[in-house]
Specification:
The longest helix has 32 residues, at 445-476. Strands 7-8-9-13-10 form a 5-stranded mixed beta sheet, with helices on both faces. It is α+β, with helices and mostly antiparallel strands. Helices cover 54% and strands 9% of the residues. It has 31 helices and 15 strands. 42% of the residues are buried.
Length: 844
């Protein structure tokens, strides 16, 4: 009866609000009546027994926020374009949403059951608006989500504006449809148990394949390919936490479980009985009847089996398996050492003179000395080496970075090199570089070496001239010694600011992190015909992750991909910038499509607090960080927009010297005035980057370009030289000898940079040169956008359809030819590098 009375009052209340007929006396009457009713209900309910529902997933304590908003502060759809009928429909929904918010403003006086009814209605309308307008609706109305009052499941969320009152409750991590990842591990044992079951179930499946008596494409090849879509996702659930989980115990467990899975899959893909099943299909009459994609799939499986040694004599097969297992184990240990590295140094504010005040204030203070703590994390390191006037300050951090993890990782790296040399010999290759590059566009080390040496020859003399220009500025500061490694970043900035009247710290104020994210999404929504919609926080396992679902504009009800963002540094987290493919795009066994899921993991500056006022200072990105964000977004879109049939060909499963093309292609939108207008908004005024600054930045784009790319060539040539060697190499000696020859700068004494060179144990071994190789491809690809328009929808749709959606279903060069409508060339690359007048370069 009490509930019916309250419901009646609520209905009357709704009618009076909608007709604006409430008088002051009416408000007072309703508030008093409902408050007394709530108190009475609360009193009677306290004597009743409480029923608890056991959740099968861990819960966390959160704050439930009651809604409060004013419609004038909210996003208005009136200015949006679209068909008249859609416009009117969404305007009606928007008006209904505003009325509901006005009502819920007073709903704190209503009992939880009635309040939930109102909140659920608001949620329903909000999701409709969000689907129609995308994530920008949520940003404009400051819309967040919290569990419904009295809800412990977290399965339903309510919109939340500014806080009126708070109540402690629990929320449970919930998944979006089609996202099969699991990161909500309650304990290390939970993760270990899952891994053990995964191994047992997977082994049973592979045993069935090996024992299949009638080996056909469907019973062996296709069945295994479809299983990969599931097993790859489960593997990511186990391995990804080691790189980003906030709990060290979970990270450690993830590392151990990743080693378990690596060993297991090496066992699987070195099984002779499985290899024989695939060969039976290839040797059968069915093979000639397969369509090109299925034939490519079968050939790829056989190639991968044979690269694991299964075409070798049995005694060599066993040694290949042992080497592969050891390499996997060492790679995980190497990366973990970097991720867990806690190297830091303490500086006084005077020693940091020249650094932006906001940077200095944002650094942590050591409790004992009061000095500033500077780590090797990028938001700490990069501003210091770019701005600190004191050479000793820069030298200290440059030295620490150069010797990062040297004691623990150099022995690991040299053991890896020895194992790779042995592996290449067992596999019948002259050296590991040929073994590694055999499955890439380059095909062999000779091609790769020719490419990098040609570039080195072109860049060395321009690099020496640029070095002379840097020396002029160093002499102005009263120093006569040569440019040192710790001068590199500092005088790069000084020269660019002096010659082009640029102030990097001021430019950074135009790139708030939130604006870069929303602006980049808006650019590629327009270009690729998609929408990015941020999911409620209860769709993520911990606060560091933000999840975005991606929809095709023509089908706004179906998720086509999802993207996690983890953008800021913390202890134990992966220390660089990278895209992690987590769930592949593919068809499932039931014939339905599984969408792809990826994560962007970066280490950009995070929001800080003013030391004096306590005011939150929104994080901003240096221009280079904004370009890095676009780079990683290029990888992510390559992954999540895939429409591959088989997981083996999904997204970024392309050759190593092609995978950097989409990422470097997207960097170009960071240099176009039209797109910069969407990416920038001054942190205080909201004004976009002024035209005069944009013009200066574009003019300065090739400032120090030769020296910058000589640094890239140093890494690429060093990598190739190591992996072309057939004997032991003293890595420290090689690093110190080659750096001044190629990069034209001396290495800090007593350091060996291989200890922190994560790429060479992260999939780029004998392949670091591919950054410049792929840059040549990206420049050629962008030439079509320059010609047809950087916001050309038809060009963008072609890029999505031809390049992004297909993954590795077609040879990468054929994809290039189809998109360009011609043979790829190097003209655009030479122009991009700033030396198009130095003669032709042989095309890739």
């Amino acid at each position: 009866p009490q509930h019916k009375k309250n419901t009646t009052v609520v209905i009357i209340f709704l009618l009076m609000v909608s007709t604006r007929s409430l008088t002051l006396h009416s408000w007072i009457f309703i508030v008093i009546f409902i408050t007394l009713s709530a108190l009475k209900s609360s009193s009677s309910s306290s004597s009743r027994s409480t029923t608890t529902t056991r959740s099968t997933t861990p819960t966390t304590t959160t704050t439930t926020t009651i809604l409060s908003c004013t419609s004038s502060s909210m996003f208005s759809p009136h200015s949006l374009q679209g068909s008249k009928s859609v416009h009117l429909m969404m305007r009606s929904k928007y008006s209904r949403f505003c009325r509901q918010q006005r009502l819920i403003h007073f709903s704190r006086f209503i009992q939880p059951q009635s309040r939930n009814t109102l909140q659920q209605s608001a949620v329903h309308v909000h999701h409709k608006l969000k689907k129609h307008f995308g994530s920008h609706f949520c940003e404009s109305c400051n819309f967040t989500h919290a569990p419904l009052v009295g809800s412990s499941s977290g399965g339903t969320s309510t919109p939340s504006f500014r806080t009126m009152t708070t109540t402690t409750t629990t929320t449970t991590y919930t998944q979006t449809p089609g996202n099969n990842l699991r990161f909500n591990w309650s304990s290390p044992q939970d993760l270990t148990s899952f891994t053990d079951k995964l191994v047992q179930q997977s082994k049973a499946f592979y045993d069935e394949i090996a024992n299949e008596k009638n080996a056909t494409f469907n019973s062996v090849v296709k069945r295994m390919a479809l299983f990969e879509g599931k097993i790859d996702t489960d593997t990511s659930s186990v391995s990804f936490p080691k790189d980003i989980h906030p709990d060290k115990a979970i990270r450690d467990a993830s590392t151990e479980c990743t080693n378990t899975l690596n060993s297991f899959f090496i066992d699987i893909f070195t099984r002779k009985d499985l290899y024989d099943q695939f060969r039976k299909v290839r040797d059968s009459d069915e093979y000639s009847q397969l369509n090109p994609l299925d034939k490519r799939l079968l050939d790829r499986y056989i190639r991968d089996f044979e690269r694991n040694g299964l075409a070798l004599p049995e005694e060599k097969q066993q040694r290949v398996k042992e080497i592969k297992k050891k390499l996997a184990e060492l790679s995980v240990a190497f990366q973990k050492n970097i991720g867990e590295d806690k190297t830091q140094h303490l500086f006084t504010d005077d020693e940091l003179d020249g650094c932006p005040l906001s940077y200095i204030k944002g650094l942590k203070k050591d409790e004992d000395t009061g000095k500033r703590v500077v780590t090797l994390q990028y938001p700490d390191l990069i501003p210091l080496v770019q701005y600190a006037k004191n050479p000793q300050t820069r030298k200290t951090m440059d030295f620490l970075k150069a010797k990062q993890c040297q004691e623990v990782n150099v022995p690991i790296f040299e053991e890896v090199l020895g194992l790779r040399r042995e592996l290449a010999k067992l596999m019948g290759f002259q050296h590991f570089a040929d073994y590694s590059l055999n499955v890439t566009m380059a095909k062999d080390a000779d091609t790769a070496n020719k490419f990098v040496n040609d570039l080195r020859e072109r860049l060395t003399e321009p690099g020496k001239e640029e070095l002379k220009e840097l020396m002029k500025y160093k002499k102005k500061d009263g120093f006569t010694d040569d440019i040192q490694s710790y001068d590199w970043n500092y005088y790069f900035r000084v020269r660019k600011e002096a010659e082009y009247s640029l102030d990097n710290d001021k430019i950074k104020q135009y790139f708030p992190t939130k604006k870069v994210i929303s602006g980049a999404f808006e650019i590629f929504e327009r270009l690729l015909g998609v929408k990015f919609v941020q999911e409620p926080d209860n769709k993520c396992v911990w606060e560091h992750l933000k999840l975005y679902s991606i929809y095709d504009k023509k089908d706004p009800d179906t998720i086509i991909g999802q993207l996690y963002l983890d953008l800021h540094p913390r202890d134990g987290k992966y220390g660089h910038a990278a895209m992690f493919p987590l769930q592949p795009a593919c068809l499932r066994e039931d014939g339905n499509r599984q969408h792809a899921v990826a994560a962007m993991v970066c280490n950009f500056p995070k929001d800080s607090k003013d030391e004096e006022t306590g005011k939150v200072i929104p994080s901003t990105m240096p221009f280079d960080d904004m370009i890095t964000y676009l780079h990683e977004l290029g990888h992510c879109l390559h992954g999540v927009l895939s429409r591959a049939t088989y997981a083996k060909f999904s997204g970024t499963s392309v050759t190593r010297d092609f995978v950097e093309m989409p990422s470097q292609l997207l960097e170009n939108w960071g240099w176009c005035p039209e797109s910069l207008a969407l990416l920038s908004a001054h942190v205080e005024t909201g004004e976009p980057l002024p035209k005069d600054i944009v013009d200066k930045m574009i003019a300065a784009r090739n400032c120090n370009v030769a020296l910058f790319n000589l640094r890239q060539l140093f890494f690429g040539i060093l990598d190739l030289q190591l992996h072309c060697s057939t004997e032991y190499v003293d890595t420290g000696k090689l690093w110190n000898e080659m750096r001044p020859k190629i990069q034209l700068v001396n290495n800090p004494d007593g350091t060996n940079g291989f200890g922190g060179f994560a790429h060479l144990l992260g999939g780029y071994e004998a392949g670091y040169f591919s950054y410049l190789w792929s840059l040549s491809l990206a420049a050629d690809m962008f030439s079509r956008f320059k010609k047809e328009g950087i916001f050309s929808e038809s060009t963008g749709r072609d890029y999505r359809r031809i390049i992004l959606e297909r993954g590795d279903e077609i040879d990468n060069m054929d994809l290039m030819r189809e998109f360009l409508g011609r043979e790829p060339g190097n003209e655009a690359f030479l122009e991009h590098m700033g030396f198009g007048d130095l003669g032709e370069m042989e095309s890739i």
